[in-house]
Amino acid sequence: MPSPFLLPVLALSVCMVGAAEFMLAPMLAPLASAFNTSAAHASGLVSAYALSYAAAAPLMGWLSDRAGRRGVLLAAMLLFAVDSIALTLVPTLRAAMALRILGGLAAAATIPTVFALIADRIPQARQAGAMGGVMLGMTAGIAAGPAVAGLLVEAWGWRAPFMMIAVSCLAAFTAGWHVIPRDMPRSCATGKLSSSKKASSGIFTLVLAKGAWNGSAVAGYVFAGEVLRMRYQLEVGSVGIAVSVFGLGLAIGNMLAGHVSRRYQRDENTLFFAAVVVAGSMTLFLTAAIGLPAALGCLLVWGAALGIAAPASTAILAQRAGANKGKVLAASESVNNVAVLVLLPVAASASATYGVTPAAALLGGLCLAGAILSATVRRTL
């Protein structure tokens, strides 16, 4: 049996990945001043991290399948810590961007390895709940990272958030050294789950489906703040508070993932219904002239359904991938990131040219298409 501290340590690890990516939002001006450049150029630190993450994830997933989960995850945490410390010492933006690329590599190694490790060590019936609990750590990092970073910058300067990441990653490395189990022999890992052709036939479809519903849901979330501002004439601070309802829903969904999975008995059923709810609530929020309380309710349901769908989808992919779960989960991460990068400018252009409603219809339709794709795989099992 794995250590009872394993899941909290894994949650801390993915929390740092989420925080490291999103915490720069309030820091662009201080970073621009520190590196004697503009905020627009400083935003390249975000792009360098995200693109490195998306490009390297398949390789890192393959490496975790071959070299072992424990070694790859511990090395990623150590690299994250060293990279964050080094970022506080470099004199130029170009050097900082190079280091952010290394941080993206560490993130690319962390996410698929964490969820592959859960699939290796947690009984199948409990995997969706365990993954939801660990994803709650990432949700916390994404939601709280910018706020905490902003407070730290105000108190101690732009280097403080990076030091926070470094200290947290060193804590995760130290704890992980003691609680992350030694890797199972490859023969055991391969035999634990079915590797039949039927079990693996839907993996490609599921990866594409997840890219569709997850990518469109995240892209739609980016528009949520502007919709709230324009439709309800909210000030910036009020928009920030209103949008945080989505994060609350996401956390609730992560916590409910295990219960919903047991209720529907099959993760495939959970995924289908949750993705349909994501599509419906997102489209209603973006297109319908509803009151503010109803809009906030849509945001809450939208986030909760996404928080349930994500761990269910990850559990399904891990179960089907057999010994290649690291590679498959990493490929899914890359597809998700690429989908968001493609959909954001397309939806933004559609919104600017034709209005919010056509852009929302595009995103909602793509999300629903992803749910239907998932359903076609569900019926083959």
UniProtKB/TrEMBL annotation:
The chain crosses the membrane at residues 44-64, 71-91, 97-118, 130-152, 158-180, 201-224, 236-257, 269-288, 294-316, 328-348, 354-377. Pfam families: MFS_1. InterPro entries: MFS, MFS_dom, MFS_Efflux_Transporters, MFS_trans_sf, Sugar_transporter_CS, Tet-R_TetA/multi-R_MdtG-like. Keywords: Cell membrane, Membrane, Plasmid, Transmembrane, Transmembrane helix. It is found in: Cell membrane. Residues 6-381 form the Major facilitator superfamily (MFS) profile domain. GO terms for cellular component: plasma membrane. One of its GO terms (molecular function) is transmembrane transporter activity. It is a multi-pass membrane protein. Its main location: membrane. Resistance to tetracycline by an active tetracycline efflux. This is an energy-dependent process that decreases the accumulation of the antibiotic in whole cells. This protein functions as a metal-tetracycline/H(+) antiporter. PANTHER family: PURINE EFFLUX PUMP PBUE (PTHR43124). Belongs to the major facilitator superfamily. TCR/Tet family. This is Putative MFS transporter Major Facilitator Superfamily. It comes from Cupriavidus taiwanensis.
